[in-house]
Inverse folding.
């Protein structure tokens, strides 16, 4: 039973590695390494959490094939990425580029930090509550009457 459980855990761990089929791989190991590096930067448009290298979706397979065709045609990695982005838009990149269209995406975390920092400074600037003053004799008598 333990061997079966270990085998299932192993298969689950390596299943993303099985997404790339042998018929997709390039013969030249150097070109294949480049293709894998480019594929790791591209989002599967079906899965959206995985790179096309890890996805088994048919569209991811098509994109992997397209990447390999571009690399075989002599394009640089940057040219291949530009070609894919031109066809599918910035969303296909797992790490979007810093461009005017993505400024909100990149700027939001910094804006949140600035707003939180400003709120902390304003809150600290207000100071602490006024110190408590002792009760007057009239207030003490009123309190005693109220408690009886």
């Amino acid at each position: 039973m333990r061997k079966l459980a270990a085998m299932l855990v192993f298969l689950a761990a390596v299943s993303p590695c099985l997404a790339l089929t042998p018929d997709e791989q390039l013969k030249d190991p150097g070109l294949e390494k480049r293709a894998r590096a480019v594929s790791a930067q591209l989002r599967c448009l079906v899965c959206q959490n995985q790179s096309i290298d890890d996805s088994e979706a048919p569209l991811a397979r098509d994109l992997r094939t397209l990447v390999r065709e571009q690399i075989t045609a002599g394009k640089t990695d940057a040219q291949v990425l530009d070609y894919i982005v031109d066809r599918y838009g910035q969303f296909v990149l797992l790490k979007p580029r810093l461009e005017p269209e993505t400024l909100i995406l990149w700027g939001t975390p910094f804006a949140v930090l600035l707003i939180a920092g400003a709120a902390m400074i304003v809150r600290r600037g207000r100071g602490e509550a006024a110190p408590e003053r002792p009760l007057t004799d009239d207030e003490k008598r009123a309190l005693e009457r109220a408690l009886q």
About this structure: The helical segments are 2-14, 29-39, 58-72, 77-88, 103-125, 137-147. Residues 2-92 form a domain with the Helicase, Ruva Protein; domain 3 fold (CATH 1.10.8.640).
